Amino acid sequence: MTMNSIGDKDFEVTQQDVKNFVSVFDTLSSRPQLIFEDIKYCVLENEPALPELVHDLLKRPLYGISDINTFNPEIIISGEVLLSKGHHQKFVAARTESNFIVSVFDSMSKEIHCFLYVCYEKGLCKVKMRSKIWEKQPENSSLSFKIQKVVKWLTADDFKFKTPPNAAVCPKQYYLTYNHLKEKYAQDIFDAWDMQTDPSKFIHEDIGIASYLICLWKSRYADNAQDYVKFVDIGCGNGLLVYLLNEEKFSGIGLDVKSRNIWYTLFSNSKLCEKFFDPQSWNEISDHNWLIGNHSDELTPWLPYVASMISYNCDFFVLPCCTWNFTAKYSRTNATLSTYHCYLNFVESVISDFGFKYQRDVMKIPSTKRTCFVSEGRYYTETDHKIKQKLILDVVRGHSGNQSNLNCVVRSKDIKIRNGSKLDKTLCSRIVNFTASLLLQDVKGGETAWSAGKSIHLKEIISAIKQNIDFEEALKDQNGGIQTVLRNFHQLFSIRNGMVSLRDWSKETKKSSYRKTPNRKYDSAALKKSKLCWFYEHHPQGCNLSASSCGYAHGPGELNIIPFIKK
């Protein structure tokens, strides 16, 4: 197969300008997916490829290398990659003092799928790239972008790659495990989901976490993993993670301060308990050897303490989310870092102070809070464990501010909703209508072309509302302010880069839903036309959608009564 064109870039440099030649090669030889996005994972072989294979590949005219005989690689690395379409291919990377190549090819036909070649000599650096995914688009901007990225890596003063995701587990095993769990459970859970929350986030995230833990446990305990591991998921929420691990024959339970209806329907075979867990009562779970803190909030810093108290051999997995120290909300100590990153450093310092060996890892899950900590035993011997427990207890008492008792924050079973959705409807209506009047003050009813009005900065809107509406008392105990109220009316307002505007639904693209059939209390057909259209009622020009296209009622005569559906 002949590819249409080759992507390349020649630029004049001195030898000192290419500062990161070896570092870039070392990184790309283990993570070629950084430049070739159709590679899912790469697994290196213990025995590298033979030099003859490298020379055989270089003889192909696709590379455009003038003198093959001068390429005598000092280092050769080889392995296997999985492409996005499920095809396995061979991978080889080779380097000399002034050249390196990273290539993926078919092991049988030697047909090249993609490659990167870098050469710098005589004051000139050459970067050449090729991939089948770009062959139909020879002028593809993605190819140019990738080449520019490689050049930047080679010449950067502060060159440093981010830690790869899921570094603690084998990428191949994770990929296979994730696909296995997804194919086996995802669709059935979607179809049976009876909570008001969107299942797409929970299912993908918890399948990712379950795959990570399963791969981690099997790499540590091999075939004995399912017999050895006895876990407790503290703060298990909807129980999905416990369900997935139980179904894969890992013994464990989930604890949460509040039960969910889904526990007794979809996850009835899993061991889920409604219980507030007090870290001082660690002896209640002393027969378990793994603690899981998946968004465990107030209990996050307590998990290393509980693991230390249970036994020398008890380990933990913690995925921090909400920021809490031992007794209250965490306050950041470094103004140059975000609260979240400060909190991660705080949790890491607690784990280190307690004597744990651990790994800080970034998970491959659909969440902005993806950094986790996994313990790997202790730095001290088992004979010193009793002494260390006393020292740990003193540290926790110091954090708690009480030398006699441990003051753990107790969450109420009845959690007050603070996202603004339970505010007085009259107040919300006044805020919404006042904001809309500001946006539409230049729109006249007689104009033919429908207009969404103007965009106004959020600060100006808040200032205007303060002068006309008394809202501060009602919002003082809410997590957010006017912006939160407006975002709750997302069908009316769009807030982007601090600018507020009315939505123009004739220009909105409908997002495709992952779920084929909604399984909430009411389906989408029953909800259609169940509320009056705000634009029809309040916009000077009415709604810019026809009555048949708009999901809201254009007048009382179109209103549908929502039928009562018994569960």
Can you give a write-up of this model?
It contains 16 helices and 17 strands. The protein has 567 residues and is α+β, with helices and mostly antiparallel strands. Strands 1-7-6-5-4-3-2 form a seven-stranded antiparallel sheet, with helices on both faces. The longest helix has 23 residues, at 199-221. The protein starts with 6 loop residues before the first strand and ends in a 29-residue tail after the last helix.
Task: Provide a brief overview of the structure.
This protein has helices at about 20-30, 50-60, 140-155, 170-190, 200-220, 225-230, 240-245, 300-310, 340-355, 385-400, 425-440, 460-470, 470-475, 480-490, 525, 535-540; strands at about 5-10, 40-45, 75-85, 90-95, 100-105, 110-120, 125-130, 230-235, 250-255, 270-275, 290-295, 315-320, 355-360, 370-380, 455, 495, 500. The protein is α+β, with helices and mostly antiparallel strands.
Summarize the helices and strands and which ones pair or pack.
Elements: E1 7-12, H1 21-28, E2 39-44, H2 51-58, E3 75-83, E4 88-95, E5 99-105, E6 112-121, E7 124-131, H3 141-155, H4 171-192, H5 199-221, H6 225-228, E8 230-234, H7 240-247, E9 251-256, E10 272-274, E11 290-294, H8 302-310, E12 315-319, H9 339-353, E13 356-362, E14 371-378, H10 385-400, H11 425-439, E15 456-457, H12 458-468, H13 472-475, H14 482-488, E16 493-496, E17 499-502, H15 524-527, H16 534-538
Parallel strand pairs: 8-9, 8-11, 9-10, 11-12
Antiparallel strand pairs: 1-7, 2-3, 3-4, 4-5, 5-6, 6-7, 12-14, 13-14, 15-17, 16-17
Helix pairs in contact: 4-5, 5-7
